[in-house]
């Protein structure tokens, strides 16, 4: 049941509360999708050493009017510190969480701003280096080296050199 005495007072109090809210708070976009926020190193490319990352989407929230952009905490988490080329534009490589005053307002994916082509020479070089850096390959190469050294030692050092026998003139006499 509504009390007729309180109804006239509710409207002015509600109006004052709304007025206070609009005077002290504002709606702010705290992340823009057109602004790169970090970078990731790119390997196996001659075109670029890094690729820029930008957030996908925007986050808006209501903040006090005295809040500045510096008050927004941005926690960037990269999936990896570097990436091998090729890199496609729009590839997701991390995420960014935005918060203010301890309250998390949202998380956005971080995507690459451009594509980066792979250098075939650098790619093949890395494959060869990876092949020779494997412990199994090192073990096989060491065994082959030892075997080759043993064969060379056998051929050059341990085989007796056959010297031609001195020819003796046959004088017809036999020695007894």
The amount of helix comes to: 25-40%
Radius of gyration: 40 Å
Low-confidence parts lasting 5 or more residues at pLDDT below 50? none
**Which structural class fits the helix and strand makeup?**
alpha+beta
The percentage of residues in β strands lies in 25-35%
Mean pLDDT: 85
| Element pattern in H and E | HEEEEEEEEHH
Number of helical elements: 3
Distance between the termini: 151 Å
Explain the overall architecture:
Helix content is 32%, strand content 30%. The termini are far apart. With 176 residues, the protein is of the alpha+beta class. The protein has a six-stranded mixed β-sheet with strand order 5-7-8-3-2-6, with no helix packed on it. The model has no long low-confidence stretch (mean pLDDT 85). It has three helices and eight strands. A hairpin with a 6-residue loop joins β2 (38-43) and β3.
In terms of topology, how is this protein built?
Elements: H1 7-24, E1 25-31, E2 38-43, E3 50-55, E4 59-64, E5 73-78, E6 82-84, E7 92-100, E8 103-112, H2 120-133, H3 135-158
Parallel strand pairs: 2-6
Antiparallel strand pairs: 1-4, 2-3, 3-8, 5-7, 7-8
């Amino acid at each position: 049941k509504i009390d007729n005495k309180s109804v006239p007072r509710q409207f002015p109090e509600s109006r004052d509360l709304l007025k206070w809210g609009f005077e002290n708070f504002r709606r702010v976009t705290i992340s823009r999708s057109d602004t790169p926020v970090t970078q990731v190193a790119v390997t196996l490319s001659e075109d670029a050493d890094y690729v820029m990352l930008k957030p996908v989407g925007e986050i808006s929230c209501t903040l006090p009017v005295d809040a500045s952009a510096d008050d927004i905490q941005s926690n960037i988490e990269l999936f990896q510190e570097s990436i091998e080329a090729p890199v496609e534009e729009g590839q997701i490589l991390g995420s960014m969480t935005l918060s203010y005053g301890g309250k998390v307002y949202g998380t956005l994916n971080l995507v690459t701003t451009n594509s980066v082509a792979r250098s075939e020479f650098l790619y093949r070089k890395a494959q060869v280096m990876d092949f020779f850096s494997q412990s199994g390959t090192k073990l096989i190469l060491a065994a082959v080296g030892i075997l080759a050294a043993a064969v060379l030692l056998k051929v050059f050092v341990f085989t007796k050199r056959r010297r031609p026998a001195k020819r003796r003139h046959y004088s017809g006499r036999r020695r007894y």
